[in-house]
């Protein structure tokens, strides 16, 4: 502490205050330097430990832990595989197998039954459940019609997006059977069999529309009865 000329010398209390101030400054500077050195050493030691661990070859214990971890995940993987397989099977059944079966049953219980009822009422000549050979395969006609209807049922289920989670498309199914199936029978299947659309087609188309529309409605009834909601 220096004295300015012309000023009284500092008292003992002021000298003590200046000394304490310098001591505190030195103390805090020393502590800060020590703290910086400590952090540097800590960072260096941690970096060296990480480098040593990464350079260390994998031991049998680590390999055993990975093996045990993989084994512990096997039940979960197997369970997921079973769930995926079940969903795939259920989806294929609801999109192909169940519509096919529904179309076959609807042909027997709705299409042929409609023809039988109309014949019993004296409105048409066909009796339904005809056992005449279906050219060219030779099967009974009602069996061949049922198989043909089954194929169309798969297409109907796909086009109308029939699903237990969705509202039942009753009117579209009725229209699909009455129009699409009748047109395919009259203008595609019958010409292949040698039966060409000639003359007055209105009675034939009306009969086909009535019976096939009932088939479409019945196929949807069986689909809704057989299908279940996916998990």
Rg result: 45 Å
- Report the total helices: 5
Can you give the mean pLDDT? 76
Shape: elongated
Helix-strand string:
HHEEHHH
Helix content: over 70%
Instruction: Indicate how many domains the architecture comprises.
Output: 2
Terminal Cα span: 89 Å
Q: Which residues form runs of ≥5 with pLDDT under 50?
A: none
Supply the helix-strand structural class: mainly alpha
| Main pleated-sheet profile | 2 strands, antiparallel
By DSSP, the count of extended strands is: 2
Strand content: under 5%
Q: Strand order within the widest sheet?
A: 1-2
Notable traits:
about 230 residues, mainly alpha, 2 domains, two-stranded antiparallel sheet, 5 helices, 2 strands, about 75% helix
Give the arrangement of secondary structure elements.
Blueprint: H1 12-55, H2 60-120, E1 133-134, E2 139-140, H3 141-159, H4 170-192, H5 202-226
Antiparallel strand pairs: 1-2
Briefly, what is this?
The protein has 231 residues and is mainly α. Helices cover 74% and strands 2% of the residues.
